[in-house]
Every structure is written in C-alpha cells, then in structure tokens.
Amino acid sequence: MAEAEVLVDTDVPEVAAARLTQGYQHVVLKLGAQGARWIRASDNATVHVPACPPPGPVVDTTGAGDAFVAALLATLFANEGAGDVVAVSEQEARDALSRACEVAALVTTRVSTRP
C-alpha cells in the first residue's frame, strides 16, 4: 500500500482503489500480511488473495515487493503471450496474484536479495 498511499494520499485500500481506478484500467494493491487485491476499472471487478505463508522463517523482506511485481507481470504475460493484458480475466488475475504472493513470501526467507 505504500506506493498507493503516496499516489492518492490514503492508506485505506478501498479509497485508494476508487481513486486509482479513475485513471488506470487495472489496479493492484499489495496489502502485506493481508495479501493483495486486483481491481478492474471498467466494472469494478475485484479479486483478493490472502498472503502466502513463507516456506521458512522470515529473515529479510528486502526485495519482496519487487519480486511480487515481477512474478505478477511474468504470470500475466505468460497467460496472454506478448498480447494485450488489458483483457485479463478474474481467474487470470487470481492466478497471477497467487503466484506473486508465493514468490514474495519465498523472497522473505532469504537474506538480502540485493546484489
């Protein structure tokens, strides 16, 4: 939520989503321990996935957000090929969010993902 909070001056996910979908077709909110949410502006379709438990002890959260975004995009583009990800379905969003949460959780079990 930190990025969304800076963009729209609120830490309330529902308010941030409403404000961001005024200018973007798709919005993804990273909610930390509460998981993640995807919202499609055209019909306000919303998908929420819970956070994934890490597969071991959390030792460092550095890079978890970057890993989340990388996994989200990789999954969406794998589903759509090199095509248009604007037409993403709710199931594709759920799959991508779930994978992104899994990858982010895994990263937290490693010390410093920065080179």
Automatic annotation (TrEMBL):
Annotated keywords: Kinase, Transferase
InterPro entries given in the database record: Carboh/pur_kinase_PfkB_CS (IPR002173), PfkB_dom (IPR011611), Ribokinase-like (IPR029056)
Boundaries of every Carbohydrate kinase PfkB domain copy: 3-114
Membrane-spanning ranges: none
Keyword Transmembrane helix assigned: no
Superkingdom, taxonomy of origin: Bacteria
Protein's UniProt keywords contain Kinase: yes
Pfam families for the chain: PfkB
Coiled-coil regions, chain positions: none
PANTHER family noted in UniProt: RIBOKINASE (PTHR10584:SF166), SUGAR KINASE (PTHR10584)
Protein name listed in UniProt: Carbohydrate kinase PfkB domain-containing protein
Species of the source: Angustibacter aerolatus
Phylogenetic lineage: Bacteria, Bacillati, Actinomycetota, Actinomycetes, Kineosporiales
